[in-house]
């Protein structure tokens, strides 16, 4: 006689689901930071999100995320320039994504001290907290601006660093600190160096929202700076996916490395304007505004990415073409509620 399996095999009761991994994010209220928070939650993480303290208790772009996303997010008001704020944010996290930074290049000509305080000292505070609290992974954010105008293309991670603005110099300073902490203390840091990211929620200090925002507001004569520089534009969701890739990859594949994230394509600002005009079915006249032109030796004329090392280490590749990403960005700005958040008549520094 065959004995029923139930008589010989003890019944098993499924155990509790594993707790979601906690990820801490600085700069979470910003453009890329808010997209990263969404991506982390979608991947099953619980997120502790630092928003720069302000008396309005504004959570920035996090306030626009769906409720089901925000239910998995703990918002912490603080400041990366304050070590205590940073320690409280990262304690107990499995991974820290450091995106907090001052980013506007034109404003860095006016207020370079503030860039050093946030982008260098702030990064130092994050590194110290990760080191002493023994956090398993830190993803530090760099920028393609640290390369300056391309000397060879596409730009690999071996390209010389050539900082042509105070902003770029401050970011390179943070990068060097990250490298030194890995070399000196074994801090488990990986540096992601995104090229130009664009998409919904981006500030109008950047060229794509500047063009789309002005056209969405009904203008057909728009003001810009130099139309000659070329850039490698990556859609925001793809950049967020790159952060998640280096934050979750095996340590041996990424820790201690700097990895570029970009599409490998380039387009001039002038051709970009023409493409946006075509997608928005608008005849566009461009007027050059001298306020928007960088000093001659500070303008970065060409940036195009080689992301081969990131792809080999993590499998990451962009999922959106430039046309697809622009179409989704145009849709965002054409929503009156979104457009109302922007001051399309002002030069956004």
TrEMBL record:
Pfam families linked to this entry: GDP_Man_Dehyd
Region feature (Disordered): 1-21, 149-173
GO MF, one example: carboxy-lyase activity
Coiled-coil residue windows: none
Cited InterPro entries: Arna-like_SDR_e, NAD(P)-bd_dom, NAD(P)-bd_dom_sf
NAD(P)-binding domain ranges (all copies): 25-328
Composition-biased stretches (Low complexity): 1-12
Name of the protein in its database record: UDP-glucose 4-epimerase
């Amino acid at each position: 006689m065959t004995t029923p399996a139930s008589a010989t095999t003890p019944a098993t009761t499924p155990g509790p689901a594993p707790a979601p991994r906690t990820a801490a994010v600085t700069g979470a209220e910003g453009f890329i930071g808010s997209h990263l928070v969404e991506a982390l939650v979608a991947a099953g993480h619980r997120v502790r999100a630092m928003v720069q303290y302000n008396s309005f208790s504004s959570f920035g772009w996090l306030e626009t995320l769906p409720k089901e996303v925000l239910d998995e997010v703990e918002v912490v008001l603080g400041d990366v320039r304050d070590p205590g704020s940073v320690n409280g944010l990262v304690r107990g996290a499995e991974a820290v994504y450091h995106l907090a930074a001052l980013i506007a290049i034109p404003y860095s000509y006016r207020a370079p001290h503030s860039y050093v305080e946030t982008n260098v000292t702030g990064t130092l505070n994050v590194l110290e907290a990760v080191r002493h609290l023994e956090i398993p992974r830190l993803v530090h954010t760099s920028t393609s601006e640290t390369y300056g105008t391309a000397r060879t293309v596409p730009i690999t991670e071996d390209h010389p660093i050539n900082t042509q603005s105070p902003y770029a110099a401050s970011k390179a300073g943070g990068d060097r600190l990250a490298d030194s902490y890995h070399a000196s203390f074994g801090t488990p840091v990986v540096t992601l160096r995104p090229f130009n990211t664009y998409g919904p929620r981006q500030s109008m200090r950047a060229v794509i929202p500047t063009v789309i925002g002005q056209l969405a507001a009904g203008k057909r004569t728009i003001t810009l700076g130099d139309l000659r520089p070329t850039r490698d534009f990556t859609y925001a969701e793809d950049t967020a996916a790159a952060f998640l890739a280096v934050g979750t990859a095996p340590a041996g594949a990424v820790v201690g490395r700097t990895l570029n994230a970009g599409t490998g394509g380039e387009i001039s600002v002038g051709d970009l304007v023409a493409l946006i005009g075509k997608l928005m079915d608008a005849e566009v006249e461009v007027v050059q505004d001298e306020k928007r032109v960088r000093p001659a030796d500070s303008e970065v004329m060409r940036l195009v990415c080689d992301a081969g090392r990131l792809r080999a280490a993590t499998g990451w590749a962009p999922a959106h073409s430039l046309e697809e990403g622009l179409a989704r960005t145009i849709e965002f700005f054409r929503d009156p509620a979104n457009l109302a958040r922007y001051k399309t008549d002002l030069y956004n520094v």
